[in-house]
Amino acid sequence: MKRVRFPIVVKRGSSAVKIYRDRKPEATYYRVAYRLAGKRHRLNFRDLSVARSEAEAKAAQLSQGHLDAALLHPNDRLEYGRAKHAVKDLGLPLDAVAIEYAQARDLLDGVALIDAARFYARHHGKNLNRKNVALAVDDMIAAKERKGVSEVYLADLRYRLGVFKESFQCDVNQIAPDDVAAFFLHLRLSPRSHNNFALVLRTFFRFAQKHGWLSKEVDLLERVERRSEKRAPVKIFTPSELAKILGNASPLTAPCLALGAFGGLRSAEILRLEWSDMERHPGFIEVGAHKAKTATRRIVPVADNLAEWLAIAPRSQERVWPYSNGHFIREIGRATRQSGLRWKCNGLRHSFISYRLAEIQDVNRVALEAGNSPQMIFRHYRELATPEQARKWFSIAPQTAPNVVPINVGRGKR
Q1: In terms of domains, do 118 and 140 share one?
Q2: 251 shares its domain with 299
């Protein structure tokens, strides 16, 4: 047998590890010795083959620059092995992964990286396409136009979504629920406007999800709660109050007020109304779906006194009211002030429904004429007026000179 000479030197490249033999009375030990970072390190083994294997491993680590690995505690080695296994499919060095993780945690200010990753996945799913908010809004409005929705609805979309896209000049999938909640907080809307705004945005977000611009797993309105709408008590004009207002209104304004008082038309519907809408069905006014608030066509009977007001109305243009909404409001305000009264919000329409219900005692018929639901009519307008008051209301007619011949607009039976 060849005699083994000590110390045994194990070399790998420029690195060397030595094995010494230490004979003691109780046993013989083999000491593996090497220098690392200027310090001498020693490991003792009873078996020479085990000492030789450890020496070869240390020499290999030293030659490859794995200085820290050579110093690892057994528990640290276990952690190191698990970490290496976890990142093996990433194709990245373990230290690069650790550095990136530390930087991400620092940016997240303590938020768990996995929570941030889940949030990102919800908003930036694999199959999402980038789409700017302004372009998405334009696409939705164009789609609604092709579908043939009413001009009233389109105007509402343009207004509310116009405000939204001015506030969010980014891609749709970059918006977070907190951003939308802050947007509503900044608007400071009334409860009803708040709920209407939320409804429009929900429609827009669903449109974006359908087209793959927003993840279907995210609800951008999750932090926006529906607000309770406390409906103000219905206030109506008395027949004497309306007579004063009509008496102080201009020849162009008075017939428009009569359309609200005796036909139940909303202000927005009056402003869109054309004379041709009264000619297609003699005795009735056709409120087209594109002009109605509810986007539903309806036919309104022309009461006898309303026919008289329309007969004396100037007809210089196609529209019944040829000027702006602002001018209409100013004219109503002027007539009300000259009458010594205060205007009541939606007072003409509320009055029509109340007096019409008192006159015919038919909730369903009034609902059809006014474009409301029977439940709404019954809940808010029942028992606000008496039949006698209704008779006076629908008897208010213009004071015409003897030589004025009324224009026949057709009178529907009431």
Answers
A1: no
A2: yes
In a domain, 372, yes or no: yes
Give residue 122's pLDDT: 63
Instruction: Provide the 10 A C-beta neighbour count for residue 293.
Output: 16
> Is residue 174 within 8 Å of residue 313, measured between CB atoms?
no
**Beta strand pairing status for 28-36 and 39-45?**
antiparallel
CB 354 within 8 A of CB 267: no
Q: What is the mean pLDDT of the chain?
A: 85
Q: Are residues 59 and 94 in the same domain?
A: no
Task: Give me the pLDDT at residue 412, please.
Answer: 44
Tokens coding 62? 């030293």
pLDDT of the residue at 210: 93
Number of structural domains (the chain) is 4
196 and 162 together in one domain: yes
**Spans of the chain below 50 pLDDT:** 401-413
CA distance 70 to 384: 93
Secondary structure letter of residue 277 according to DSSP: G
* CB-CB contact of 370 with 353 (8 Å): yes
SS3 120: helix
Res 88: pLDDT: 81
Q: How many CB atoms lie within 10 A of CB 7?
A: 14
Q: Does pTM top 0.70 for this prediction? A: no
Q: Enter the tokens of residue 17.
A: 């590890």
Q: Which domain range does residue 163 map to?
A: 133-210
pLDDT, position 121 = 63
Token pair for residue 164? 């939204």
Asked if residue 413 is part of any domain, the answer here is no
Is the residue at 12 inside a domain? yes
DSSP 350-384: HHHHHHHHHHH--HHHHHHHHT--HHHHHHHHTTS
Check which CATH number belongs to the domain holding 307 and give it.
1.10.443.10
